[in-house]
Each structure stands twice: as structure tokens, then as C-alpha cells.
## 1
Amino acid sequence: MMPLDSSHRQFIADVLAATPDMALATVRPDGYPQTTVVSYVHDDLTLYCSIGLNSQKAHNIRQHDKVSLAITPPYHDWQHIRGLSMAGTATLVDNASENEQVADLMLFRFPQLRDVMGANTAAPWPGLVFLRIKPSVISLLNYELGFGNTELFAVS
């Protein structure tokens, strides 16, 4: 596994900027993975999403903080598939300043949230909690470099 360098970091940033949704997998109490598509924002390599405060996903993370996720922007043909697969840890955001920061990022990336939230755009949002995901391993998928091309990086 290689350390992450600046050119690959830029590839990651480009994929994150081009893709509003990810498939996020947590571990259920019975040991099986549970995968859900969620919209997300990011601050460098830290990803954030909102989930139901009392959802199965929130319960899963409270019990087991390891997660995996996959992100793939739209593509026209297989020769242009790009994507990310990450493994890391997830934590429920529980401090006011980070909640405000994530709310601002979400409202900037998804302005339609203002219509959904109405006047209540101050974080924390009722019934929701923000999830912070810190990757420890990132796999880059880039078929533009050859069919099935992947590179694995450690994140420190």
C-alpha cells in the first residue's frame, strides 16, 4: 500500500466534487453489512452525511465504527469509469461548531435543503445527526488508465 501523494489526492478531490452520493456500508448487529445510498459533503478527505438520529445506520455506527463506501461519478462508457472505495471509521458529530460547519457545507452543496428545512437551517437538524467519516484506506479506480486499473493508498 502506497502513501497518498498530491496527484492522487487531486484525483480524489475531482471524484468527490463530481459525485453527490455515495454507497455507505455499516455493520449490522447480526454481522452483515448494511449499505445505503446517502448524499455527502467533504472537507478535504473527511466525508460527512446526515442520517436519522434513531436510524439503523446510527445504531450500527454506535456499536461498530468501521465503515466502507463507494463513490462513482456518472460515465459514458467503461473506458471512462472512475471511482473511489474507502474503508475508515465513522463518528456521530456531537459538537456545535462542527455541526454548524457541516450544515454550511450541506446547504452550499445542496441548496434545495433550504426548501426541505424551511426556517430551521441551524444545526443540529431535528431528527438528524451528522456522520463524520475518516478514511484510513482509499482505493482509486481509473479505467482511463486501463480496464480494471486500481491503486490502493494508506491515509494518515
## 2
Amino acid sequence: MPRRPLHVTGAVEAALRAALREVRGMPGVPGPFPAEVLAEAEDAARAPRLPASDATDVPFLTIDPPGSTDLDQAMHLARRGHGFRVHYAIADVAAFVAPGGALDAEAHRRVQTLYFPDGRVPLHPPVLSEGAASLLPGRTVPALLWRIDLDADGRTVATDVGRALVRSRARLDYAGAQRQIDTGTAEKSLALLRDIGRLREALEVERGGISLNVPEQEIHERGGGFVPAYRAPLPAEGWNAQISLLTGMAAADIMVASGTGILRTLPTAPDGAVSRLRRSAAALRIEWPHHVSYAALVRSLDPGEPRHAAFLQECTTLLRGAGYSAFTGGELPSPSVHAAVAH
């Protein structure tokens, strides 16, 4: 059945815009940044605390949704002997936000960036998040730089992390990255995203981990109105996520080894929840033989197929209970597992 976009225009569109403004005015949704926060952000943008190490010779690239300017992650991939070397740069917020300052207090109050169909409420002032701290191409920016060496199977063999200056060379969106990879026009670093991504996906299967390719619900402004739509994720998005997950797992290993850190945790779903999913699968006419595990079934589904997309959305109920657990003194929190990562 062809997908038919729904257009919201006229009086309905005006009512929707008013409703969105009302949502942004609800308690708990931050308003404009206070003047002292904006002033501190301007000062930080002009004089960040820069690291001594310089890695601007590494030709990083970013992959984000179209039009994104708050770029906080960049990568460079290369072959290394029979394996690979992953450079992964994460925007260094601490270079701009001083502990105990007005910016720090405001970020604690906001917690995260909130996204709405017609805009977003940012965690940090745009002069930082979309300017001085963003890993935009052609700019020298302080970052937390990870260097992770992998063997021929994609397993981590060495990890190093430190602060460094970096410079991105290219800003790509997912569709553009996928197109370059598929047509063989991608530069070496981007072309390796498929190779490394697939190896890491195979290791995820081996671990019993799960990645839900849930279609994204998007609302686009077009022609003065809104167009809601579902978009199935591209393979490049999954490969990109594997690089991010690789870095997160490396960070977790370092924290566990040191006995101090903060872990992202997710408890194993109770048996009753899986039984309920089996009933949902039956209702959607999705075959789920008893000898097939939940992880294996999820990996066999096509998010572009409506019944599969509906079931994948139901699968998100097994992700309830995710949280962060801080620990120190070598005593790991309980639970200290992430059921979806299975690491």
C-alpha cells in the first residue's frame, strides 16, 4: 500500500502552531536563557580552555540529520595492519562550561535539548551548541578524542582517550553518506563505515545484543504547513550508531577498570513482557517460532514494512527501566548490566 503524506494546513495548521506554542510554555519546558547565562556563553565562546594536544591533521567527518548545526560527534576511520583504527571526537563541553558557573547551573536545570516539530529548546546557548563548540567543518574545536584500535573481526584491542583540538573536513547527512557508500564514491574513511559497522553488528549478534530499527516519526514544515511521516532508518544510521556504541563501551570498560564512573543500565525484561510481545506478534501476523529468540526475531524484521514497524514500536516497551548508576571505590552498582548491549 503506498504511503500517503498527511498535510496539515489552513485553520487546522494555525491551531496546531498555537498548540505547539502552548506546549513550549508548559511547566518544565525551559524558556529563554537568562541574560547572565548568555553573557557567560559569549565569554566562553571567545576564550575556551584549549587543550595542548593538536589532532587537526586527522580529516574528521560528521554524519547527522539534514540541516543540523549542533554537531557533537565526528569520526575518522582507517585501516591499521589487518585491523582498523577509529578516531572518534566528541565536543568538549568542559572547555566552555566552568563547574559552578551560570552556564553549568542552567544546563543542570535543563538536563537535555528538547525537540519540537517547529523548533527546539537547546541545552546550551546556540552561540556554543551551534557555534564555538560545534564540530562544524573547517573549524578548529576542542574535543574529547578517542582512539580505538580494532582487530580484523572488529574487536577492541587498544583504547586511548584525551583532550585535543580537532577539525572536521566534511558534514554529511545520512542519505548522502548512504548514497556515497552504495555508489562507491565515498572516500576511504566513509567507505570503511560499512565494513566496521557490519563487523560490530556481527559482534552484537554474538553478544546477544539488540538494536531496534524503529521508524522515526517526523514532522516537516512545508509550504506553510506540517507534513507528518514515518521514515525507516538507513543502514548507514545503524553503522554510525555502532561506532558510537563502540566508544560508549570503551568508556564503560575504562570506568569499570578504574572503579569509578557512571554506567548506563537497563534491566532484563521480565518474562511476562516477552509473553505479551508474542501476543502482539500474533495479532500482527508476524511468525515467531518458539525456538527463535527475541533478539533474532527483531533482527529479521524490516522497519519499512508496516506490520513490522508496528511491532518494533511495541518492542520499545522492553526498554523501560533504563537509567544511570554512579559508582566509586571499585564497587559496581546493582544492576550493572545493559540488556540491549549485552556486554
## 3
Amino acid sequence: MGFVEDLGLQTTRTEGGAEVRLEVTEAVLNGLGLVHGGVICSLVDHAIGAAVIFALGHGGRAVTAELKINFLAPAERGVLVARGRLLREGQRLLVGEAEVIDQSGRLIAKALGTWAVVRKAL
């Protein structure tokens, strides 16, 4: 089982991007009882990354080259949703953004990232 499956991320293709849902469990909470910041980073990384792969199409491969995140509010139990979309699609680099909201619609985090297209076998 892979990392995405271990976290329980559910990914859906959307018009112009991707939506990723996370049902918050005890396993993703930090010592304060809030969602760990690394989990939120993983959520936005996967949301933008999925938007990138959907844009590249069948056989397309890319890796995260840079990711910046602003944590705007603490995330608690419930459902978190990350929506990723592309801002720019070049031959070698793609730039995307994502936001994370909780089940009440509160903005939890915003992220901006760059993905590098992989043309050779890793």
C-alpha cells in the first residue's frame, strides 16, 4: 500500500484540476489534537500533483520541484478538502496552486508549487 492510500486520500478529477478529500483520523493528529502540518502539506502536494498529472495525460510524469504553503487556521477533526489547479503549463515546468478547506468551509491553508516534467526513467 502506498503513502496516498495509507493517508486515505480520495482524489477526483475536476474541471481544470483535482480535488482531494481526507477524513481526519486520530493517526494524523499532532500532540495538540490538530491535524499535523505535514499531513496538510501532503494534501496540497497531492492535489496540485494530481492536477499536473491530469494535464499531462496518459503516461505523463512529474515531480514536485518546489512547494510553498501558508497555514491560515488550525485543522481539527472532520473532513478536509484540497482543490488543486494549474496556473501555468510549460514544456518542462508546471506551476499550480491549492487551497485546503474544512467541512465548514473555513480556509485552512493555501499553497503554490512547481512541478518538473520527468522525461527519462528514474
## 4
Amino acid sequence: MKKRLSVTVIWFMTLILLLPTTSWAEDEKVDYIALGDSLAVGITPESSPENLPENGYSDLLAHHFDELGKLSSYDKSFAYPGYTSDNVLNDLKDNKQNEAGESIQTKVSEAEVITISAGANDVLKALNINAETAEADVDIEKFQQTLKQVGINLSSLSVQIKQLNPDASIYLMGYYNPFPRLPEDQKTKLYLALLQFNRVIEDVANSVDASFVSVKEAMEKDDLTYLPDPTDIHPNEEGYEVLANEFFEEITLQSPSEFNDVPDNHFAKDSIDYLTSKAIISGYGDGTYKPDQNVTRGEASLMINRSIVFDRHPPENPEFADVIPTTSTYEAIARLKQEEIIDGFGDGSFYPDQPLTRDQMAKIVVNAFNLESQSTDVEFSDVDEEGWAYPYIQVLAENEVTVGYGDGTFRPKEEVTREQLAAFLERSMQIEE
């Protein structure tokens, strides 16, 4: 009995040493508050008193932070449909209280992450767009005055937040075209106005040490799907996922981890810092990252699942013969299978413990981040144009997620290391839309 116990203890201690772990600082959690308009609330075309919004970008972000083990608290009680930048600013000045009797200044002073979407209602009034008649009546002088005031309000809002909480990270959201079905001549007017509007928000962000979150290009990829109601400016839940992911690509949840085996001149240093700052990856108890260690298919699934904000619904059983609910990477594999990011083998297995190869990685990353061909000429001497992985490798290279090796090869059957996957993920998340 004693001998069996000793073997068990040794096995357990060995497992602890081998598994990735986090430092004390990485265990700290964030308080998150969302301020602003109906987008911060999460209003959709289907919202009603009986169908309250609970899957807006702020809800999805909070859920993702929680899944990453990083959420301490979440509050969107100071966001209201119809709010202008004036409304948000005045609430902070007046120290408005929510229904629970909590004050906005207290909430702001306690938050590490603050997202703001405000200004659209100001601008829409100046643009006077009639979605039913498909006409945009733009009063240029009024529009320019409105833009100037929005800039002043957002700047004042951000400065006051910083006075209350100098350490808070502020994220100012840009806006998308809410009327993608307008005739081309009307759409051009709105497009030019939108460029100016977003430039004002970005300039404010740059001037007050906040982060600008661009969403326009991401929404344009499939705006008719994300904005299903021609008379409603609000996205559906799928559209809110797009907004949430644009936020997450900018958000920092913790300080980057320092690893004793990742020097400053390491090729993947910046990528590893970026991912650890979002709690997507972590190191080991001995202070190492083990950058040249191979990644299994299950581990890769976990890292990718942590890199993307999905809806809040539990995923379906992936129905792989070797992936069951007690499998450590079950949730990640189930989610990625449901999202058609990964698939298995012909025998019905996923083989989560097998090393991930570079050709498999190419397919998974392209699917995960919806990467598209850039129509550039990239060739690898060891990638067969008739092979199943060819189109994925091409798209990956065209987006400069990888350039292959110096000898002109891609080495598709080579196993992926932790440093390589970190670089692939960070580059994919950072691609400009």
C-alpha cells in the first residue's frame, strides 16, 4: 500500500512540474465596466421587454474573461439605449447611481477594463438617414459641429476616468456602417461621414492614452448577415461576436509574463508577450515557457479557443471517439468542432494527444480567423498544389502569418512548437482587416 502511494505521489508531482501553470500576478482578475449606448447594452433587432439583451459585445467579453479565469466583476448598468456622448459624460460628472444604488464613479474607480461605445446617436441625428426611403440628408455644417462636440465629450470623459482611476485601461469603439443596403450614391455619403467619425474617435484615443477599437472593416466582411433588419441599426448576436473579437484583440488583461527561456531577441518574444497579456497562454512552474516543445492537437485547440470570443451557448458533443467530457481539452475541441474550425480523422477520432503538424496548423488557423486570400504569389518548394493543405498554406503565407523557411520550404509535416503556434496566433489576431 505504501509503495503504491509513493508511486502515486511521484506521478502527481511530475505532472505538476510538466503542466503549464501561472504566476501569482497572472491569477489576479479584472473588474470590467461597459459604458455607452445601445451597443454597450447589447440591443438586437429581436430585443424586447420579454427578450432582454444578454449577448452584446460586453456580455460576450465578460463571459470570455470569465472562461479565461480573469473576471472579478462585470457591470453594464450605466449603459443605456439612445445614449449620446453627452449623456455618458454627464452621468460620470453627476455620479449617477444605478438601480442597485451603486455609483458610476465608484464602479469606474474600481475597474481595470473600461469599454466605451458612444457618439453614434449624436452623429445619426446630424446625418438624418431614412432607412425606409433609402435616403441620407447630410447637413455638412451640423455634422462637423457634431463631430467636434463628440470629440470634446469623449476626451473629457476619458480624462475624468483617468483622474478617478489612472491605472484603468480604456477602449473606445469606432463604428460600422449601420445601413449597408443604401444605394451606392447614398452609401458613399455615409462612408465618408463614417471615416471622419472614426478618425475623431481614434484621435481622442491617441490623445488620452486609450485604445481605439476599429470595427468597420470586420463588420463589412458580411454586414448583410450581421445587420439583418434594414430598418434597425443594431447587429444580431453574430454581429456582436464580431465586435467582441475586435475588442479582445486590443484588450490587455494582465502584464506579459517573463520567461527565463524567452530572451528579448527571441523571434516569438512579442507574440508570446501579446498572448500572455490576454491569458491565452501561460508558462511552467519553473519559470520557463519551453518555446521549442511540440504542441499537441488538444493543446492547440485550447490555445485557439482562448484566442476567440464565441457565443455563450455550451457547445455540442464533438462526437470524436477519443474525446469525452472528462478529456482535459474537451470544451475547446467541442467548441472548435461546432464552429467548423477543426475536424477529425476518417476513423472518427481526433487524436488530441498527437503532435500538431504545420499543415494541420495552417488549416486550423485559417478557419479560426477567417483568413482570406490576398492574391499574392507565394510558393513553397515542398507544398504540392494538389495536396489538401495547399490552399490553407497559401492563405497563411499571403497574409504573412508565415513566410516558411529560408530554403523556400514550408515543411508541412514538421511538428509545430509552442513558439511557432504563438507567432501564428498573434499574427493572425493582429491582421489589419
